Amino acid sequence: MSNGIEFRQVTKRYGGAASPLVVKGIDLVVPKGTLTTILGPSGCGKTTTLRMIAGLDAPSGGRIFIDGHDVTTLGPAERNVSMVFQSYALFPHMNVLQNVSYGLTVSGVAKDEVTRRAHATMDIVGLAGYDLRLPSELSGGQQQRVALARSLVLEPSVLLFDEPLSNLDARLRRSMREEIRALQQRLQLTVAYVTHDQSEALAVSDQIVVMDAGLIAQAGTPQELYEQPASEFVAGFMGEAMLFDGQAHADGRVTLGPLTVRARRPVAAGPVKVALRPEAWQVVAPGSGALDGSVVKFAYLGSFQEITVATALGEIFVVSPDASRPWRAGEAIGLGLQERSVSVVAA
Length: 347
Hints:
Blueprint: E1 3-13, E2 21-31, E3 35-39, H1 46-54, E4 61-66, E5 69-70, E6 81-84, H2 96-106, H3 111-124, H4 140-152, E7 158-162, H5 170-187, E8 190-195, H6 198-204, E9 207-212, E10 215-220, H7 222-227, H8 232-237, E11 242-248, E12 253-256, E13 259-262, E14 270-276, E15 281-284, E16 291-300, E17 305-311, E18 314-320, E19 332-337, E20 342-346
């Protein structure tokens, strides 16, 4: 598969040579026709990386390729790249058709062709019949669709999203991420997508790139990153894993306190970190599981419960699908362990 986007040892610093690097020599590949999410904590360099793909920021070193062409020194208008911003950046005095048409109009495309392409793109994103509406007359989800149509109408080689759903409520966010993913797959778009939301990244991505302090900590499929994190940072960042000190043995066993688990990937004997996710635990009767404890606090969240349990390992955060079970602080509880949600990484 050819590469839609490729970084080769790309660096970025703001200021002179003495300024610290924000992006520290990364190699990044987004295969053509796929969606890659760049994920990481604030300040990790993910938005700077996206802006360098768009041509809004020039790299301090390294090379950037789009569809096999070196675009390192090209400006945004020369890259055939479109970007959907967090704020949508719609023109408030223009109606929907004018907003969607804007890029084609300023590029000198014939008026009839502009209207045809704008209407075709509006149909794709579910905005047929909204031609004369102003942005102020639209919901947040509809404004998001206008911003998406304005980018798609330019028929870009690469489509970039910078935190596109952060301004939407939870239900609309879920709906829009499904629409973006379906659209990307139907049109075979090459997409780089920046978010801080792990569940959003897991839901839409062919590949997730986790960044930490200007470096790529790990890249892989959503399942690989969630189930086989390569480091303590990735294990702690993907989901809500709790990290415990453990000891790996030559026979593949890993012990932590009273528990023994099996490493799912080879790990050298010696000290390790064990990541236990909230869903790894199964609530059982006291004395019948891997670990006993007492309830510290709990919260009912409709379809599941969150329970904090005091154990020999310390306090453990548990997500239980049994929302009907009432609990009391101090009540005895047993915990079974489902090893599919256990990850072992080097200490």
